[in-house]
Write a structure and sequence with these properties.
GMP Synthetase, Chain A, domain 3, 9 strands, elongated, binds zinc ion
Length: about 160
């Protein structure tokens, strides 16, 4: 086993720790599955630097997420200083959200992800939805209504 493997292991464990952190506004969905984790840098003396990208600048959950990430990584053995930074680039896009996260959001939270083109499909019945208000309960989300099942849904947005 080389020293490189040790470094990779610490990095892997740091990534796994970050993956235990859910978005406070999307319970049950990891911020890693939402595509927020961009960089994890570790050093031989156990320093871990986490780089996250925000889903939407000004989202009030950001401070809570950073604190949760720092706490989760700090709990790991052999970890010294932990820093969490919000990166200015790349810009978060909905393409970063994993299929698993999309399924969980649709099933548990009636939360959809804005379609790349055309109307956003309803998480319940897959019919096209109509935007009712540009900004929902948080700036990251819009409110849509499904024309078929009349379900009101929230839609994650990246712009
Ligand atoms: Zn529907």
């Amino acid at each position: 086993m080389s020293t490189m493997t040790v470094d990779n292991t610490l990095r892997d464990r740091a990534v796994a720790a970050v993956a235990t952190v859910d978005d406070p506004e999307i319970p049950g969905v990891s911020i890693v599955d939402l595509g927020l984790l961009e960089t994890v840098t570790t050093t031989a003396d156990g320093t871990v630097a986490i780089g996250l990208i925000p889903t939407f600048s000004g989202c009030p959950a950001l401070a809570m997420i950073a604190a949760d990430v720092e706490a989760a990584v700090t709990l790991l053995p052999e970890v010294g200083e932990v820093t969490v930074e919000w990166l200015r680039s790349p810009v978060w896009t909905i393409e970063r959200v994993t299929d698993d996260a999309r399924r969980t959001m649709a099933t548990n939270l009636t939360l959809a992800v804005r379609a790349d083109s055309g109307p956003t499909p309803c998480p319940r019945c897959d019919s096209p939805t109509v935007e009712k208000s540009e900004f929902g309960p948080s700036r990251c989300r819009a409110v849509h209504r499904c024309d078929s099942c009349l379900e009101v849904i929230e839609v994650m947005r990246d712009r």
